[in-house]
## 1
Amino acid sequence: NGGSTQIDVAPFTGGDVQRLDTLLRLASQFVQVSLSSARQLRTTQKLEALLSLLSDAKAKLQDGDTRRFASLILAKSLAMFECDRCTFFTVDSLNGELLGYYHADGDDKLQE
């Protein structure tokens, strides 16, 4: 045979099928737990950003610095909505006028 080794292959038995079924179920559970953990981490990060926004917003508003307030909202919005860029519009709802807007990319640069 030129040094080659022949391997005897037997058909699957009922026990083989049961073992494969068990392995597939375990793999499926592992994937589900992994996906669940990733979703839980994303939700936790979003909640942390929201809580941080709520706690910091009052202080920024009292300072009267709208630029810093808009920067705070944009930074937290990027995290909460998992987006690459965000725009914050300031609107005079009584007169129906757009007063201005700020936008930011993921690199934390605020632009008016």
Note: Helices lie at 14-63, 66-80.
## 2
Amino acid sequence: NEGKKSALQYFSYWINSVRIHSPASPLALVGTRCDGSESRDLYQNVELFIEESILGEYGGIVRNDADGLSFFPVDNETGSGVENLRSVLGQVARVEASAREVPIRW
């Protein structure tokens, strides 16, 4: 399918761009413009694409356990989903910060 191939190229470009500068950092995939009227089927199709095409190729993807997804759907207009994303990223940041040695001079 041409659409999947294009989407995979897009994802690969951005994930590789991030990994070049920060290879060990966790990565959260965010689906914007999800206004809540989308069916659960659409989210499951996106999830299946991510599982088949991205998760095996790239590690360190942050899971959205609240929605049972490998991405975070958010609504740009209402902010729906943003609080969950913010909370998960805060938890990830705390774990990452506690796992790194920081010189005392910092």
Note: Helices lie at 2-21, 40-55, 82-99.
## 3
Amino acid sequence: ADENDIPTASSNNSAASAESSTTQKAKGVDNLLNELSRPEKLSTISKTSADWDLFKAKNADASLKEQLENQAMGKEAYLVKKDFLERVDGRRFELERRERDRERAKR
């Protein structure tokens, strides 16, 4: 028997490590493919948005569109209120700044 025929500890370790790295790569690829093949998880907001768009498409009559536009522009609409409050805040700031400037000018 030659020395080459006798398995040594180092040759067993290198063969085992090469085999395990190949197995790990295969497992990694399998995991990646599994993740890609899974259906995408929807957040509550994206699901609600999709449902609302579907509802509007199914009920796309003129009266619904008119109601939605009126609600969006009415006094109770969020964006209308927000814009109004921002304008009021800006005006108050300007008035307070003018008052501060007057006080400084008096000194």
Note: Helices lie at 9-37, 44-58, 62-73, 78-106.
## 4
Amino acid sequence: LSQELEFINVSRLAGGVVAYDRTLNEEAPTEEPMFKGVNYVFDGRMGRRITDDQLGTCYTCGAKTHLITNCKNSNCHRRMVQCEHCQDAFYGTCSEGCKTRIVNEGL
């Protein structure tokens, strides 16, 4: 991947990004992190915010965001980046179709 994207001087972090963030916060809290945004994780947290940078694009409206969620429609359950406004407007779903389905299920 680093060769395809033409990155140079790529290293692995001992313990991963989460350990890097923990160490940075404990030992050098004023230092600017090299990792930006949210570190995506594969558990209920979805992601661990490292910086306030919003590097994602909302699946629904295209706004910049850092929020990752799953569509609330159990038949869809799409993992997506979605801004807070769209999470509210679409009741946590990814589309008008999924929103209609969960609204109708609630009746």
Note: The chain has a mean pLDDT of 85.
